[in-house]
Structure formats: structure tokens, C-alpha cells
């Protein structure tokens, strides 16, 4: 039974000058030109990174302890989705403060047992003025080795939509994105761990990468995004061809092989 009685982490602030180099690096991963001055929505994930010492990491690669990591045994972490509201974009050269706080927790029951849903809110301030607010939804569960799913389909989905972007994430792309976001979770680069311990069908494509690919559709169409939401529904694995699909009306999705909708998103 999940018990987080007494877990009430205090808010935390970090201040950083927004550098152009991380965005240029991500643009290389996505095979696009680097943004000029403004960070595209969600590219703030390249900043305010935590860099724990090696001795502080747990068996899954994540830190064993952290301000917003729940005190659970054999903790497994999954990215579930989030929301982002933009008043003013983050710009290269800005000095920005990010205030992180625990927004909510909820214990729910799923097919794999009890799960803890945690929402962490990030408020971005420039000169003391709020310019953007992000909420990240994360799911934690306790447990040992999970059973591996059946055969992973590799047939490219057929998708018809006004906007599409076809992607196949190989291990090199996943490695580069992990490096850019300083994400040491082993499900993204250690296939034996991902399949044998956490029960995945292969290396897992990062949920944040899927969300960024969704937002590439309106960005490449020249649309300004002021508000967005996204929800991860199913994992996508390395070498699986998938399609980011959307339309100008604000609906976005990641369509994976086998008729699977891996992520849904909406923007305004």
C-alpha cells in the first residue's frame, strides 16, 4: 500500500541565464534550424537541469532521493503528461527564475496495482514577473520485475491529417535526447534493463520528446502557441515508426504501429 503520509516538500527556486547552445543542440537532433531568440514551447526542458552525483543514483538511473521524488520502495517512474501556459516566451539571454512546487498527489488503482500520481508545478519568472507556468504529471509505482509485452509491431501507421511528421527514433536519437535533458533513466538507453526489469518491449522513446514532436507541427506551420496540454497513453519503442499528426484546429497526437495512439495533445 502506498503511504506518503508527511511527505510535503518545500518549494524550490533556481535561476539561470538562458543560453542558446542547448536549443541549437536540440535543433540538430530534430534536423531543423535553431530558433533565433525565443525558446519554442517545451524547450525549457533543456534548462534548469539537475545534475546529481553518480553515488546518488538508484538502480533505475534516477536519483534515489529528491525534493519531489516520493518516498516509495522500488520506485518506478513514468511520464504521464502535463500543461503549459505562456504569457511571454523565454528568450535567449534572459535571466529566468523557475519556482518548483508540489501541486498535487493522488493514489489510484490500475492494472499493475496501486499508482501514485504526482503533479509538479513550475512557475517561470523574469524580473519577478510570471511569464509561464508548466505542470508535469508523473506516475510512480512500486514493484519488482514486470512482465514483458508481446511482439512489438514495426509497421508504419497510415495517418491522414493536415499536418504530419514521420519519425523513427533509433537508439542514437534517444541517447542524444537523454544527454541534452540530463535524463539518466535506463529505459531509454539500456535495453536489457528496459525489457528485463521494467517489462517494456524495447528502449522507450521519451515522453517529453514525443510532446516536443507534437509541438513541432504548429511551430513549423508558423503558428504561435500560448497554451497546450498533452497526455501520454502508451509507450513508443525505439525503431518503431510513428507519426506526429495534427491540424490547425488545435488537435495533435502521436500515432504508433498497431493502431495505437501513444499521446494526445491540444494547443491554442
UniProtKB/TrEMBL annotation:
Q: Which InterPro entries match?
A: FAS1-like_DH_region, HotDog_dom_sf, Mitochondrial_HTD2
FAS1-like dehydratase domain location is: 69-131
Q: Name one GO molecular function term.
A: (3R)-hydroxyacyl-[acyl-carrier-protein] dehydratase activity
Q: Which PANTHER family match?
A: HYDROXYACYL-THIOESTER DEHYDRATASE TYPE 2, MITOCHONDRIAL
- What protein name applies here? 3-methylfumaryl-CoA hydratase
Instruction: Look up and give the organism this protein is from.
Output: Actinomadura meyerae
Amino acid at each position: 500500500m502506498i503511504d506518503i503520509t508527511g511527505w510535503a516538500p518545500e518549494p524550490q527556486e533556481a535561476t539561470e541565464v538562458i543560453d542558446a547552445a542547448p536549443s541549437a543542440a536540440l535543433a540538430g537532433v530534430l534536423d531543423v534550424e535553431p530558433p533565433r531568440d525565443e525558446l519554442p514551447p517545451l524547450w525549457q526542458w533543456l534548462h534548469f537541469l539537475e545534475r546529481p552525483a553518480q553515488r546518488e543514483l538508484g538502480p533505475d538511473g534516477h536519483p534515489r532521493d529528491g525534493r519531489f521524488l516520493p518516498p516509495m520502495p522500488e520506485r518506478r517512474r513514468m511520464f504521464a503528461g502535463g500543461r503549459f501556459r505562456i504569457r511571454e516566451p523565454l528568450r535567449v539571454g534572459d535571466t529566468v527564475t523557475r519556482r518548483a512546487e508540489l501541486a498535487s498527489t493522488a493514489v489510484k488503482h490500475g492494472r499493475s496495482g496501486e499508482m501514485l500520481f504526482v503533479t509538479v508545478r513550475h512557475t517561470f519568472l523574469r524580473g519577478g514577473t510570471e511569464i509561464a507556468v508548466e505542470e508535469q504529471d508523473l506516475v510512480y509505482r512500486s514493484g519488482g520485475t514486470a512482465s514483458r509485452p508481446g511482439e512489438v509491431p514495426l509497421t508504419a501507421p497510415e495517418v491522414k491529417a493536415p499536418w504530419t511528421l514521420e519519425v523513427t527514433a533509433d537508439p542514437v536519437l534517444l541517447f542524444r535526447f537523454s544527454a541534452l535533458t540530463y535524463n539518466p533513466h535506463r529505459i531509454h538507453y539500456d535495453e536489457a534493463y528496459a525489457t528485463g526489469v521494467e517489462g517494456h518491449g524495447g528502449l522507450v522513446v521519451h515522453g517529453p520528446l514525443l510532446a516536443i514532436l507534437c509541438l513541432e507541427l504548429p511551430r513549423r506551420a508558423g503558428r504561435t502557441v500560448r497554451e497546450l496540454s498533452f497526455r501520454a497513453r502508451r509507450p513508443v519503442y525505439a525503431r518503431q515508426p510513428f507519426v506526429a499528426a495534427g491540424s490547425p484546429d488545435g488537435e495533435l497526437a502521436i500515432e504508433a504501429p498497431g493502431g495505437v495512439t501513444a499521446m494526445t495533445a491540444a494547443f491554442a
